[in-house]
Amino acid sequence: MIVDGYYPADIRVRKEAESLALKHNIFILCCRKANDKEFEIIKNVTVLRKIYYKSFREKGLIDMRLAINFIHPKFKRSLPKIIQEHKIDVLHVHDLPLAKTGYMFAEKFNLVSILDLHENYAAALLTWFSWRKSLIIRLKNKLFFNYQRWQNYENRIIKKYDKIIAVVEEMKERIVADTVIDAQKITVITNSEKKEFAHKFIAQKDSLFKENIDKFIISYVGGFGPHRGLQTAIKGMQYIVKEQPNVLLALIGPVNKDVKDYLENLIDKVGVRKNVVIYRSQPFEEVVQIMKNSAINIIPHISNPHTESTIPHKLYQILLSNKPLLVSDCLPLKRVVKANKIGSVFKAGNAKSFADAVLDINRNYKKAIQKAEKGYELAYKGNLNWEFTAKKLLHLYDNLSS
After folding, report:
1. Which CATH homologous superfamily contains domain 11-192+386-398?
2. H or E element in which residue 340 lies
3. What is the rounded CA–CA span in Å between residue 324 and residue 342?
4. pLDDT surpasses 80 at 205
5. Please, where are the H alpha helices in 244-270?
6. Does the fold of domain 195-380 match that of domain 11-192+386-398?
7. Which of 106, 109, 128, 113 lies closest to 165 in space, CA to CA?
């Protein structure tokens, strides 16, 4: 596997690698932080941290260089030697930016090639940087991370790979429509969670909410950005507080200055300063307790080509928390929640719809808990967990031909 990120920090890569390592010899070529070991074996996965960026600036410059010819210079230098030294016969490439680099060596060394698409990368480029204020950043993204150019690149490179992994059925359908490749080449491996995640929830109140223990807490945990729909939730609070003033919207996760400024200004503009708090990132153990100690956990994604082609890990993590779930009607989220009757859905981008859904959950909390209990049952004993998903991944590998 090759991934332009850190291991085992990337949840999707880690789950796939650990499952495959039960039957195969798995090597991961990935990035290294200053204090990381260059070589390490973690749960039978051999981790080769050969890719090192001296600074954030160097990473940015290489990203721009990559965007010109779609070849990553550091992976290009390291990959051939690893393929030969470890007698690699399958190259599993994570996400679009490394696709051309990976395929170049899969072809050269006659390897089976797998492209694992975590998201609609080209569509994500339209969203990720839309709240950034820096003119230099905006110009760089316009020049080097142009949506149409990356979408055309994806359509070309996908056709070259032996197998494609998509994260949701909606992504599979889009790929088939865009490229007219055989649907049987695509396997859907979703971002479900391991059942053991449920064991991390212990009955205790976490320190983050100790000053708001008496409030009806609506929590969002995850990355911040325009596509996450946090603006919808903040705007919705103006309607919620009229009926339920004892409510708190807690937004928890990593956030850059531009995004934080945007959201803080929106909080003041809407007039809900007393009912919305933006917290910094929390340790993973705290995140688990935040989900458990919230009245509702939300995934308020707006609808766009990016969010309609992916699904977050936290959906399945919330199910294992056994607490009420509220999602927007982005197709993958709506499909999973509605089909299984495990949560509530509101209209994406519609603040009034969000508020109505929250108030309905509040009024009918016993019913919301019943849905949460069904979600837990399916995530722990049914097919909404990684143990079930991993069988599809192992089946894919069992039927590869070198």
Report:
1. Glycogen Phosphorylase B; (3.40.50.2000)
2. helix 331-340
3. 8
4. no
5. 257-270
6. yes
7. 113
User: How many Å apart are CA 111 and CA 102, to the nearest integer?
Assistant: 10
Q: Is the peptide bond before 8 cis (omega within 30 degrees of 0)?
A: yes
Q: Residue 72, Cβ neighbours under 10 Å: how many?
A: 23
With a pLDDT cut of 70, the percent of the chain lying above it is 94
Considering only CA atoms, give the Rg of the chain. Answer: 22
Chain CA centroid to CA 155, Å: 22
Distance, in Å, from the CA atom of 343 to the CA atom of 332, rounded to the nearest integer, reads: 14
Q: Dihedral of CA 64/65/71/75: which sign?
A: negative
CATH 3.40.50.2000 fits 195-380, yes or no: yes
- Cβ atoms of 316 and 343 within 8 Å: the answer is no
Helices (H), 72-134: 73-85, 99-108, 121-128
pLDDT at 206 over 80: no
- The two three-digit tokens of residue 147, written as one number: 């949506």
- Please work out, in degrees rounded to the nearest 5, the angle formed at the alpha carbon of residue 100 by the alpha carbons of 99 and 106: 90
> How many residues does the structure list for the chain?
402
Q: What are the sequence ranges of the domains in the chain?
A: 11-192+386-398, 195-380
Run of H or E residues at 386: helix 386-398
**Whole-number Å distance between alpha carbons of 30 and 16:** 15
Which 3 state secondary structure label does DSSP give 276? strand
HSE at residue 181, side-chain half, CA atoms within 13 A, is 21
CA atoms within 13 A on the CB side of 57: 0
Question: What digits encode the pLDDT tens for the residues 366-393?
Answer: 999 999 999 999 999 999 999 999 999 9
Helices 121-128 and 147-158 sit at what angle, rounded to 10 degrees? 160
**C-alpha to C-alpha distance for 105 and 101, rounded to whole angstroms:** 7
Per residue in 254-291, pLDDT (tens digit) is 888 888 999 999 999 999 999 999 998 888 778 888 89
Taking the CB of residue 23, how many other CB atoms lie within 10 A of it? 10
**Two tokens at 18?**
């650990």
Cα separation, 40 vs 248, whole angstroms:
43
Nearest Cα to 311, choosing from 197, 169, 185, 187? Answer: 169
Rounded-to-integer distance, Cα 65 and Cα 48, Å? 23
CA separation, residue 306 to residues 41, 69, 174, 311, 351 (Å): 34, 23, 11, 10, 20
